[in-house]
Amino acid sequence: MTTPAQTESTEAKAPTSVVLTDVAAQKVKALIEQEGRDDLRLRVAVQPGGCSGLRYQLFFDERSLDGDVVADFGGVEVVVDRMSAPYLAGATIDFADRIDAQGFTIDNPNAGSSCACGDSFS
Questions:
Q1: CA torsion 13→41→56→107, rounded to 10°?
Q2: Residue 57 parent element (H or E)
Q3: Helix boundaries (H) for the chain
Q4: Which residue, 8, 53, 104, 110, has most beta carbons within 10 Å?
């Protein structure tokens, strides 16, 4: 038998936000330092568009919106708006810096399919 407290604790462990890898967190921190501002956070959103129907947006933002889901990764805050959160629950953001790929990548378990560019999904 589970008590309500046990149920709440199990629900809290379910992925409700994105995960930022250590490499990505270091890159975000460096980019924010380059901006010379300490009030910026990485906002991740899903918007209609792209080849597959939805596209990712990553940008720096100082705003706090009602319903934002905020997670801290080594001093880097990642913010997801309430409309995007269900699409991004459990997604992992990484940063690649290789000869064949450079930039932020998103591994999203909620994406049924994605386009070749990796910026769009459905």
A1: -40
A2: strand 54-61
A3: 4-13, 22-35, 85-88
A4: 104
In whole angstroms, give the CA distance from residue 36 to residue 31.
9
> Side by side, which strands form the sheet with 102-107?
19-20, 92-97, 102-107
Torsion on CA atoms 111, 121, 108, 95, rounded to nearest 10 = 170
Per-residue pLDDT tens digits of the chain, which is 122 residues long: 544 444 333 333 345 679 999 999 999 999 999 999 989 999 999 988 766 678 889 999 999 999 999 999 999 999 999 999 999 999 999 999 888 878 998 998 887 755 555 554 54
Q: In what order do the strands lie in the sheet with 69-73?
A: 69-73, 76-80, 41-48, 54-61, 120-121
